[in-house]
Design a protein that fits this description.
The complex is a heterodimer of chains A (about 350) and B (about 375). Chain A is mainly beta and about 350 residues long. Chain A contains two helices and 26 strands. The longest helix of chain A is centred in the first third of the chain and has 9 residues, at about 80-90. Chain B has four helices and 24 strands. Classes of the chains: A mainly beta (about 350), B mainly beta (about 375). The interface between A and B is large, with 91 and 96 residues. Strand 15 of chain A pairs antiparallel with strand 23 of chain B.
Amino acid sequence: MFRRVCWYTVWVLVGAISPGVAASAADGFRTGKPDLQQAGVLAFAPDGILLVGDTVGAAVFAIDTEDRGPEHQGAPVHIEGINKRIAALTGSTPDDVLINDLAVNPASGKVYLSASIGRGPDAAAAIFCVDHSGQLSEFSLDQVRYAKSVFQDAPEFIAGRRNPRLSAITDIQFLDGKVIVAGLSNEEFASKLRVLDYPFNGQQVATSIEVFHGAHGRLETHSPVRTFITYDNAVLAAYTCTPLVTIPLEDLQGDKVRGKTVAELGNRNHPLDMIVYRKGDQDYLLLANSARGVMKLKLSAAELNAVPPITEHIPGGGTAGLPFEQLNELENVVQLDKLDAAHAVLLVDVGDALDLRTIPLP
Amino acid sequence: MRFLHWMGIITLALAAVTVTSFAAAVADTRATLDAQGTAEVYIDKDGERPWIALRGVSIDPQRDAHEYFQVVVAPEEADADSEPNPPMLGEFEVVEAEIRFLPKYPLHPRVVYEVRLSPWLRRQLSLAQQSVQLKLDEPPTAPRGEVVAVYPSADLLPENLLKFYIHFSVPMSRGNAYQWIELYRGDERVSEAFLELGEELWDRQQQRFTLFVHPGRLKRGVRPYEELGAPLQHGQEYTLKIRQEWKDATGNPLRSDFVKRFRVGPPDREQLNPEHWRIETPKRNTTDVVAIVFDEPLDHAMLQRVLEVKDAEGRSIEGHIAIEDHQRRWEFRPDASWKPGNYRIEIAANLEDLCGNSLARPFEVRLQDNHAVDPRARIAIEFLVE
């Protein structure tokens, strides 16, 4: 008997076109019913294209809503107990309707919601739409124009057996012909931000995100991104371990990048969702989190560049980096998106139900 | 004439009473509409997906299938003042002498459905009743789900433990998992111990739940760690409790609470080192196991996924994996007998221990002595079958 340990590298194929995604058109779109297994996080690409993250199917779908405007300039939408309304449409109970995400089509101002009808592994994936009059309807997936990009994922050696590994898609954004996807594996602690070419062509680059910490930033760890936005050619990301970090988009080239910590969100919360908006001459960030009211932060490219990175904890609860304002009147916000130039739409947990509300941008 | 008129009213009233008594008692899978008992609505459960059908009425070829009735979720008494429920999503079709409503989403065993009869159908059948109620006749089942295992299975765990895997005997419900998981230090509840993700980390069958310890409380120098400390502390005793109220995919709670008691030892911040592992090789012409004995417990899920046995030509050997000795021992038993020759076990460099340290790197890398290698690499442990 002998034994020798040797290292070698097997590069994961990047850029291979996934099997089964043969496209019927040059842009990868085809018409039919997408095999969406779970309707998770949502974002809009231009021209009414709805991006849907499917954790169970390990894929992102681009679905043509054919909703290209005109832009809404009317009454704010408000639906009490929207989960009850969806239950009535689908013949289910409010408890068996899970609203997974919300996104506003910037072309029209209509609100789209992704939902699971049922809580078990065979729950149905569904998309709903709230129009300008506050009317809730199903966005039927039975016959739509869509494209699909399947993740080329971590090495899998158990050929022929069911692979229990999944990567929960925690957020998704569109920017300049790219779809950026954040995820967290249910096994290894990894921290990939995937950048997919859009229209989908099979090109996808996964970059490992690291964060500095410890005194004087001498330690770094993988840091899965919980939620993010793109701002001034950077990803502004809230991590599962709670710092707020900027990562230049040009650095998402594969391998790994180190984010710069620009704020600390505190120790008893989990970031949930965020948006960026402009009021007067000032940009702002709104961030919903599990513990407190929505946080508001002034944002400017100059400040993000100028603020020194937070490299160690400030003792005694002190703060460093960009200052936050707490909007305590906005409690229990679980999802938010910008409705128009002056309003945000929120999904609020009111205990026994979920309400869809519109507020003026603070 | 006057007599006949009254007779008509009495007949109608009787029909209404009959139907009302059906609805007001317990909604059933069928309801008779007319006094003769020929017209009825019912839930057909024989197919893959139940539907609602109307039969025993004359089909009018001039009318569309959706003009006979609508199906709505019956309002609960508490909702009496709110606006009426909209018609459910689905399609109507005429099949033989029936009008069928095929709901777009499956009928729910705990929902009462109201079949609203159209005015012209009520006129045709001389009904006063506007609607009847139906319900799937699903007998309640006893709770049968339980926690079958929690990994890591050892009762001594490192202070910087990164995650638990909770295995269930049946598919579970998604959406409020963290509500049912509690951690206690002695008798004291430890709050903010875990990473709570709305997406929740399940396998496809929803029988395995991954529970990460809050990474902010494991990373030195990050605010949650500095202000709250690690949830698990060296020298203390803990209980992880999975509450019985957690519902399975059918809506039933678990049969009982599950508790895992464990002690906590010192943190482990070392990268995995295969030089510290021991290999046990099999004999030729047997299906004995080849085994690796690790110097510490490794991640239960990854041990089943990221190791592969190959022969000298690089062909995969088919066989079965077993994880033993509290995740300190990996065994592979081939389907066919070993032939003499060289073999190797390929292992993905992202294989982790209990604390997120992998073959590629420790959980936290010190920048001054960075030994991290590409996590996409593999290592190979070679062995000889003599």
